[in-house]
Design a protein that fits this description.
mainly alpha, 5 helices
Length: about 110
Amino acid sequence: MKQIQISRTARKVAFNIIALGSKNEMQHILPEGIVQATIQLLISSRVASKATIRIVAKMAWVYEAFDCIMPGQFRAFGYRKAFCEKRVRGRHACGATQVLTLGAGFDTLGW
């Protein structure tokens, strides 16, 4: 059986969402339920264990430390997710019934 290769970018984005969820100032920015859905998706797909999730949630400071290289990169994940979800929910409210996500990785929007 062929081993499936998990995208490092997909894993990075998912871990960023979890780390962002540990930041109080991001609680009102992140879409409701996105952190828990991302955790559930990673654990269900066996990409991360509960122990790994706990470590990632406590490692937000590491992501923030790299902001000196690309300022705002860490929080940009959360703002981008919020922007996309708001647009999709708005279109859904207007009658849209499908979502096409290209390069979804561990994105929970379609879920």
